[in-house]
Amino acid sequence: MAETVTHYENFPVASLLCPPHLRQPIAAIYGFARTADDLADEGNVLCERRLQDLHEYRAELQHIAAGNPPSPRWRQVFAPLQVQIRERALPVILLDDLLDAFVQDIVYTRDGCTYANQQELLDYCRRSANPVGRMLLHLYGVNDARSLEQSDAICSALQLINFWQDLSVDLPRGRHYLTDEDCARFRVPRAAIAGRHRSADTDRLIMHNAAVARALMQSGAPLVHTLKGRVGWELRLVVQGGLRILDKVEAQGGGSLLARTTLKPWDWPLMLWRALWM
Fold this sequence. Notes:
Keywords: Transferase
GO molecular function: geranylgeranyl diphosphate synthase activity; squalene synthase [NAD(P)H] activity
CATH topology of the largest domain: Farnesyl Diphosphate Synthase
GO biological process, one term: terpenoid biosynthetic process
Helix content: 55-70%
Protein name: Squalene synthase HpnC
CATH superfamily of the largest domain: Farnesyl Diphosphate Synthase
Radius of gyration: 19 Å
Enzyme class: transferase
């Protein structure tokens, strides 16, 4: 789970609140996701090359999951990951889901695809974000259905918050996460979104989506009471970080279409205070 899911930059890697015995498995998962993200998103590589690299990366995951020694190209990623798959029984299907989402992002961007409705968008979140939370719960030994559902809600909310925070960044890159259904509902032409032409209608569209993300986050937030100790406190800060970003998106009143907002140092005391009172 992360404050936002951009480049997994806030993935809780060996953080101060992370139990020491889980730092190596979390670092191995992060290294896997971070490298895949770079293959999908960094540099000026053509889409076809990115897809080929991810195909080979995916094949390597299955290769080491079957117990074979890592190949040289990504040994620094797959050697520690293989140890954790073996020792912690990491669910390989969740790792594969992450790769599937990366592939989808490339294909959708290349082909100018959009999401028809919230169901399609949340299915993308199911693969792009939810596996992170489920793998962490696996490491924490939590696997009941309610906790998994709440984790999915938190992670999907974080992904959505990231989308609405990053509209001004994603749209010029051809990434469209506002759905066709919502655009039609608020009478916003696709051309207006693509061109980032702000209006009262685009403001209402973005604020609606922010409200959806907030409701989803609030539905998952009770998970903080299931996870005890350091892990529970880390999750409180994750939830409050996401909600604070959402506060800022909402304060813009739809202006995230034109400008990205971020957390500032002075946001942390408020987040800590809110985490304390959860």
